[in-house]
Amino acid sequence: MLKMFQPAPHVDRLPEDKIDKAYKKLRLQVFLGIFIGYAGYYLVRKNFTLAMPYLNDMGFSKGELGLVLSAVSIAYGISKFVMGTVSDRSNPRYFLAAGLMLSALINVIFGSFSFVTSSLAIMLALNFLNGWVQGMGWPPSGRTMVHWFSVSERGTKMAIWNVAHNVGGGIVAPLAGLGIAIFVTWKSIFFFPAIIAFIVAIVAFALMRDTPQSVGLPPIEEYKNDYPENDTEDRERELSTKEILFRYVLNNKFLWYIALANIFVYLVRYGVLDWAPTYLTEEKGYSHNESRWAYFLYEWAGIPGTLLCGWISDKVFKGRRAPAGIIFMLGVLVAVAVYWLNPAGHPLVDNIALIAIGFLIYGPVMLIGLHALDLVPKKAAGTAAGLTGLFGYLGGSVFASVAMGYVVDLADWSGGFILLIASTVLSIVFLALTWNSGKSGNAA
């Protein structure tokens, strides 16, 4: 059983006249695999957020719901780092599909048994398990990206892949509404998207492959004649966990800077997203259905924003990721202030502010993950991205769930928005410390 998770062995190289055609076909195929697969993860990641208004009506406080929601982020943050070290030594095809199927199964359980949503402890435990298997999604996608796409094209390609967040995260809201209409229960928020996620896992498995060498193709650097500045002759050698951690990851100051920035970027991302359904229904007079559509708009606005941010980092700043991230976070600062200060009764302004936040926030989210990949050899990519994810989720997302809930209980929504604005400023400060790092794979 464990053998299937090991990296696929290299096979004899294809004849030279077949390499270009095969490479083009498989690059598109594996890209579609990780795009569809990772979008599927978002169908079954944050369903609890959409269920919170219903659970609030059942008598659970915002602080209690925030605590349960934080279990996903705590588990995901730890798992993304742990699974990153495992995925660097695993076949991403099996790894990604297995995690998605397990997450879908947990959501089916969540929505199928009434005792689950009546117990705070059970909801917390299941959310923790879901967060853990969710950590099996990003690392194999990152491993696939660095093996099939070279440094000079990775910013744009990574930006395109990263909108899988928004595709899956946006679709889940209308899917939840459709599920409620079909099954006449709000608990279909959990099990209806899970059914779709099972199918997505099968499709992703069918499309994905391990490394180019596992299908008879040369390494991507050779094929594209595109070598990073920190390249090594033994770039294809599988590294030990000790080498990855202590030679390339833990001693890299720029990785630590972007990991700290990620705390505050994620706090803003999830502080707005996770609480949007509750905030809009409670403070701005939205119905449950209207709040779900606002959630959808936030997620899908991130698609053009992410693409633009990746393009700017590649073309305008020549592979430097921090400047583009800072520009976008300054825009987030303005949009969050408008979202907060706009009085109730002006839903168009609220929706425009949410769209602006969604448009702007996902670019920096993507760039931090990409920056991590730029700073290390490709055999350490999953671990580097896992470190930034550990900080983003264990620090930022957890704080967005727990602190926002209790801050709003104690100091109203004004206290929560002051927290979001302070976080935006701090993210800019830490991104500024990496202003010139990571260009073309330079980890200096």
Features:
mainly alpha, 444 residues, single chain, globular
Verbal overview:
The chain is mainly α and 444 residues long. 76% of the residues lie in helices and 0% in strands. The protein contains 17 helices and no strands. Helix 1 (16-43) packs antiparallel against helix 6 and helix 12 (253-273) crosses helix 17. The model is unreliable at 440-444 (pLDDT under 50).
In angstroms, what is the radius of gyration? 21 Å
Structural class: mainly alpha
Question: Per DSSP, what share of the residues sits in E-state strands of 2 or more residues?
Answer: under 5%
The whole-number mean of residue pLDDT values reads 86
Distance between the termini: 41 Å
Number of helices: 17
What is the topology?
Blueprint: H1 16-43, H2 47-57, H3 62-87, H4 92-112, H5 120-134, H6 138-148, H7 151-162, H8 164-183, H9 188-207, H10 220-224, H11 241-249, H12 253-273, H13 276-283, H14 288-316, H15 322-341, H16 347-374, H17 381-432
Helix pairs in contact: 1-4, 1-6, 1-8, 1-9, 3-5, 3-6, 3-17, 4-5, 4-6, 4-9, 6-17, 7-14, 7-16, 8-9, 8-14, 12-16, 12-17, 13-14, 14-15, 14-16, 15-16, 15-17, 16-17
